[in-house]
Amino acid sequence: MPKTKNEHQHPNIQIAVEHFGPIEKAEIDLRPLTVFVGESNTGKTYLSALIYTLQRTFGGFERIPSSYAFISLLKQSRYRFQIELDDETLETVKKLNTFGQSFKISDLPQWLHMHVLHYLNNSELFTDELKRCFDLHSVSELIQFSDNKGTKLKVSLNVSEEGQSLWHFKMRGSKSGISVEGNVNENMILRIKDEKISQETLGPEDLVSLLYSNRNKAPDFYYLPAPRGGIMETHGVIVSSLVENATRVGLERSPKNATFSGMIADFLQQIINYDERRLSSDEMSGIAKLLEDEVLRGEIEIRRPASGYPEFRYRPQNAEQGLRMSQSSSMVSELAPLVLFLRGVVQPGDTLIIEEPEAHLHPAAQTKVALTLARLVRVGVRVIITTHSDWLLEQIGNLVREGEVMRLGKNKTEPTTWLTKEEVGAWRFSTDESVKEIPFKHIAGIEPEEYGEVAEELYNRSVDLRTQLEEATGGTEVEQE
After folding, report:
1. CA dist list (Å): 243 to 254, 262, 437
2. Sheet holding 323-324, edge to edge
3. Residue 163 Ramachandran class (φ > 0 left, ψ -120 to 50 alpha, else beta)
4. Which secondary-structure segment (H or E) carries 472?
5. Could you read off the pLDDT of 261-304 as tens digits, one per residue?
6. Most CB within 10 Å of its CB: which of 85, 225, 467, 474?
7. What is the dihedral of CA 206, 210, 213, 218, to 10 degrees?
8. Edge-first strand listing for the sheet containing 12-20
9. Are the C-beta atoms of residues 37 and 443 closer than 8 Å to each other?
């Protein structure tokens, strides 16, 4: 059966935390579609924000941590190669030009190898990003409340491929401070021994091509926060305020403690600097168009007034002019950012984190948003969502069933959208319990047990009340208009 495109396969990612915000303990692995469900205030957003923080710290989850930072370092350091090469660099060049010999991480020049380890063992890099993304004064604010004063916050990240660990990172935190530890697998192969050299002689600068990990561009990562609808509705006011407060007088008047979390700040920056003229793939544009046609029943338009900042409007189908976001329905303001990101920001191979994609949507629209998520998986986008929606989970379950039927070759019609159970990971968050995976089941899908319990309780209550009404009316049901 068809799979996600090979050029956009992601390494395997395992993340574990202890005493992190509301989370007592969690061990998860990211799938092409990762779903966080459960009660409010149990840590779904905390873990999503942590994933985003780790991605920003290490430039995404690539085979080599911060590989694109090293590429820039190599390009900026070419003057090093204009002088006489040291023995180590000469040995590196020799190995690069030896056919039939694999080239490993351990074969890199020592100075470059030390830079790789520096990124993994510099506590300030991760600490600063944690404080920025979570809008904190101190990382200790993330430690789960406990009567035990010795409680320690733990975060670990492991990146692997085909059962082999590529690199790992660990952080431990307490009220007194944090420590980090990271390492790279010295035996990670950058070029297989049978891979032919495309030119007669390679030089030190050709290390760049090895670090690219067979990708044409750096994979990016984006976060659509829960308040995105309100931000879109007040976008113009926010932009005006930012411009005014950017002046010296404005800075003096603005409150010192008014700050955004990193995710909201990054989202705002994408919206303020939005430029759809940037090249977008036909696949992503097609997914955005389906979302507009099937759910919004209209188009998100972009205008550029004299101020230069984009203005977003919603034009319903067959309407002559568009409406401001503040005049549109909450559904439009919630989905407009997703449409915009798919049309001009996110590309195959990227990671997209969405908080509550079902917010303010009719149940039928929620099921169609689930189709959008599956389409993104099909083109190679890694998707992570938080949700409370039974309708969304039901549709995802149906998409997995569709994929399982396809695997058996028993589909009655050729499906255009599907998922496999290996592509979907659902994790249940609850109060005072560890985060647990919800395994897919053919009958239950990925629905948490408490959803069924709530439905059963409501049904039993309705039966009891109907019985009381029948008894009170002598067995004759009275309908009120």
Report:
1. 12, 19, 45
2. 298-303, 311-316, 323-324
3. left
4. helix 449-472
5. 899 989 998 998 887 666 678 899 999 999 999 999 999 999 88
6. 225
7. -40
8. 23-30, 12-20, 153-161, 164-174, 177-184
9. no
pLDDT at 146 over 50: yes
* Angle (nearest 5°) at CA 354 between 53 and 394: 135
Could you give the CA distance from residue 36 to residue 34 in angstroms, rounded to a whole number?
7
**Helix spans in 146-213 (H):** 207-211
**Per-residue H/E/C for 31-63:** CCEEEEEECCCCCHHHHHHHHHHHHHHHCCCCC
Q: Which two tokens stand for residue 311?
A: 């203005």
**Cα angle: 276, vertex 247, 135; to 5 degrees:** 70
> Tell me, what amino acid is at 99?
F
Distance of CA 70 to the CA centre of its chain: 23
The one-letter amino acid at 458: L
How many other CB atoms are found less than 10 A from the CB of residue 45?
23
Q: How far apart are CA 336 and CA 299, in angstroms?
A: 9
The pLDDT of residue 28 is above 50: yes
Residue 222 in tokens = 């984006």
- Look at the block and give the residue holding tokens 């990016």: 220
Tokens (6 digits) for 11: 């390494």
Q: Give the whole-angstrom CA distance, residue 478 versus residue 465.
A: 13
Query: Which among 59, 34, 31, 54 has a CA at the least distance from the CA of 44?
Result: 34
Whole-angstrom distance, CA of residue 383 vs CA of residue 307: 34
What is the Cα–Cα distance from 265 to 242, expressed in whole angstroms?
Answer: 12
Q: Exposed, middle or buried, 405 (CB in 10 Å: 0-12/13-18/19+)?
A: middle
* Whether the Cβ atoms of residue 232 and residue 337 lie closer than 8 Å to each other: yes
What backbone phi and psi angles, to 5 degrees, belong to 285? -65, -40
CA-closest candidate to residue 59, choices 137, 125, 134, 133: 125
Contact status, residue 269 vs residue 337, Cβ threshold 8 Å: no
What percent of the chain is helix, strand and coil (3-state, nearest 5)?
Answer: 45, 20, 35
Nearest alpha carbon to residue 48 among 26, 68, 24, 69: 26
Query: In this predicted model, what pLDDT tens digit does every residue of 343-363 receive, in sequence order?
Result: 989 999 999 999 999 999 999
Are 328 and 314 spatial neighbours (Cβ–Cβ below 8 Å)? yes
Please tell me the number of Cα atoms within 13 Å of 473 on its side-chain side: 11
Q: What angle do CA 319, 361, 275 make, to 5 degrees?
A: 60
